[in-house]
Amino acid sequence: MVTIRSASVFILVLLAVSTLALVANGEDKTIKVKKVKGKKVCTQGWECVWWSEYCCNETISDYFQVYQFEQLFAKRNTPVAHAVGFWDYQSFITAAALYEPLGFGTTGGKLMGQKEMAAFLGHVASKTSCGYGVATGGPLAWGLCYNREMSPSQSYCDETWKFKYPCSPGAEYYGRGALPIYWNFNYGAAGEALKADLLNHPEYIEQNASLAFQAAIWRWMTPIKKAQPSAHDIFVGNWKPTKNDTLSKRGPTFGTTMNVLYGEYTCGQGDIEPMNNIVSHYLYFLDLLGIGREDAGPNEELSCAEQKAFNPSTAPTSSSS
Fold first, then answer.
1. DSSP code of residue 18
2. Which GO terms label this protein's molecular function in UniProt (predicted)?
3. Closest among 42, 41, 43, 45 to 25, alpha carbons compared
């Protein structure tokens, strides 16, 4: 016979298990669960703030710690770097938290989350590195050395977008951020998504590390062009290639993330150094995160050397970085 007291204890235990009160970065991160139209959805306090099925999984701070961020970007605050003191772990986690309910780092299990961190941050490191062949610590340790293009050759104002994303007087739209954004139309689109006036104030990205990471994650999570998948959907397997994709040697692989982000500037040109540099960063980060590069798959899945580019560009876009 169940007494009122024992029933109360049982209910309290169930509540304790279902809420899974956690503390992260000194803040309460309580997992709350409910069902919406028969589907389990969750929130996790400060880090996964919207009700989402993805928030029922481990969040990024559960498996990616500050010491790992420091290992991945070991040389970013070296005196010879160009963005000393700008980039930090908390800025990344704060930015990532906004996209975790959409599946960034929370799709699948812990292993998939770790691999996505290695993939995304591998792209970031390769695009912000000032490493070179004889650099201290090796060329792969110098990611996040920059937060902006140092000697832009132009203002990157495309007047064909003057009605939708007109260039602001005096503004320059050179590369900025963790996955550098170029051109007024890309700053305009990013600003709309991030609710920041980047079209009139592109400099905001080089002044705020969290915003810079947000812009990079937005680019990872959002299709660059119409009729294309996002790099995120490619990597986690949400995207299903068509027959034409298969004939173009594009599949749900790391190599195809390079294709969708950089197009013909990196892919379909054979075994070129810019492509190999991105792959090397990804493999290096897999090793540092304790996953091991053997989980990356065969070389043909890492490379985009023989892939036909998605919608080849006729004018420079953000994918030209």
1. H
2. chitinase activity
3. 45
Q: What is the pLDDT of residue 247?
A: 97
For residues 267 and 304, the answer to whether their CB atoms sit within 8 Å is yes
The closest of 89, 123, 82 to 206, measured between CA atoms, is 82
H-helix or E-strand spanning residue 301: helix 299-302
Measured distance CA(204)–CA(196) in Å, rounded: 8
Report d(CA 91, CA 298) in Å as an integer: 34
HSE-CB for 20 with a 13 A CA cutoff? 14
What does the domain layout of the chain look like in residue ranges?
A: 4-141
94 contacts: CB under 8 Å, gap ≥ 6: 210, 213
Q: How far apart are alpha carbons 215 and 207 in whole angstroms? A: 13
Instruction: Read off the tokens for 52.
Output: 């989402």
Closest listed residue to residue 190, CA positions, set 178, 18, 23, 58: 178
pLDDT digits (tens, 9 = 90+) for 127-163: 999 977 546 778 899 999 999 999 999 999 999 999 9
Three state DSSP letters for 72-95: HCCCCCCCCCCCCCCCCHHHHHHH
